[in-house]
Amino acid sequence: MASLRHLSIAVVAAASLLAAACATDTGTNGSAPPTAAQDTGKPLSGGTIRLVGGGDVDHLDPTSAYYTVTNGIMRGYARQLFNLNGVAKEGDTTKGFAVVPDVATELPTTANGGLSADHLTYTIKLRDGVQWDTQPPRAVTAGDFVRGFKRLCNPVAGAGAPGYYTSTIKGMAAYCAAYGKAFEKAKPTAAALAAFQNSHDIAGVQAKDDKTIVFTLVQPAGDFLNILSLNFSSAAPQEYDQYVPDDATFRQHVISDGPYKITQYVATKSIRLERNPAWTQAADPIRHQYVNAVDVKMGVTEPDAVQQQIEAGSADLSWDLPVPTAQIPRLKSGDPDFKIFPGAVTNPYLVFNQQSKNENGAMGKVKVRQAIEYAINKVAIAKIYGGADVATPLHTAIPPGNIGYQEYNPYPTPGDQGDPAKCKQLLAEAGYPNGMTLIGAFRNAGNHPANFQSYSADLQKCGIAVKGLPVRQGDYYGAFLQNPTIAKDSKWDISAPGWVPDWYGNNGRAVSQPLFQTNCTPGTSNYGCYSNPKVDALIKQALAEPDATKAAGLWHQVDQTVMADAVIVPFNNQNTPIYKSKRVRNALYLPAFQLYDITNLWLDPNSP
Question: What is the DSSP letter of 321?
Fold first, then answer.
């Protein structure tokens, strides 16, 4: 996203992540909501939850959004057939790994007829009462979900991980290929895009009737319900045919089927969500509508300024900036509003633009990339984020806590603090004895400038000068890294994004497929357009392997191949520190988004 996810934020052993489930109940059809350990009493209604931070969303269109903070507010206005629950305590994150019904009435099984005996056909019934915020309100139908899937491969702002769908759903790959070919020369106007979608079908995504959608797979996929829980799988109303996906006009006409609707969006400035009158609690087993509104204020780029506002009570949560590193020791000493949730992520990591022509195409040369692997002082970068409490050095493409992870270190350096001599040696062998100059793109907020300075200083020690290219926080993913034209035009050579797997549990594909499978289309998360047929073949083999142990071994081979190709330099695995204001209650953590669930929070007006 994705997990996308794209990140804004101590190695945790896989066992601690996948340990005992928590005892929290999300409530159904208006029953009591989950209660965090520090919260007592009944839910309170009213008030406005205030988020403050630096940048904008990547996209407001559910088809395209892949930034964790965008997913955090999208929870309020876009619904899927299935979804995930939030969890109440730091040690209870595994509860948030389980897929639960959302617009679907139940989990499909062979017993209830929702899953065929060969595990290739899913027949899913939609619950009553789910409505679009239209005038008058209109029921969300199976056809709306079909439309959502047809929009995934649009050539303007497509899904960040189309491989999840093209490798899984019958006819999806052919449909997406035809969609791309149709607009190789034609201008993608709203009318033209809608005409293609409405005249072409996906063989494996069919509306049997308004209340029934049928999916047919190319092979069994034990994680298919996880794929259906992603925002890419959201329903899309017929009104979306009037707009180019996620353009400025679309962003002023987003239609909600969740508990909140967007009532104001000012690019780079603010977003406001208010209660959606078409939503009913009886039709939503996951979300609630406790607060009146959600306000997001952008433009505050320093974590310290955000922290001060939250502690002073003039803001409630950070939008896209981390808890200030220097404040973590004080906060963890006993502040009940500060929590550190376990992570199993790659954040940050260095990615190479293999399309760049700069320095005679240096980023496309494996030995140059391997030299840079040895250059980085990962301990120094971890300190920027809070040291061992928050971040620890990472050596693998698949982080701990994810299927396929095995600890090994293909580019060891003394104490994980870098080896400039080894870097220089490999650069000389690659034909760069006098070093080179690269363009390093970085976000202009939070810890990202310091992160850039740290890895740039490391590269300078082995003869690589890095020219900094600051990118506005809200543009970094959607407008910059996910735009292959910018990569092909050599506008950047290296950059340091972050990655949160799109789901946990059975998640073999949730790291490797978006980041490393061949994909250089708009919206891609394979930012440098890396392509290796061996990796593609291993991913395909792993997805088809029914034996979990064998599949894990194949995913590890993907890791080994990717690291041998030096596609990325993994810097850190991070936990997630979060601070909330004193008036926030029922703070339920969403592991896949690294945020609290805005649709379950309520506010205590008696707290300062």
Answer: -
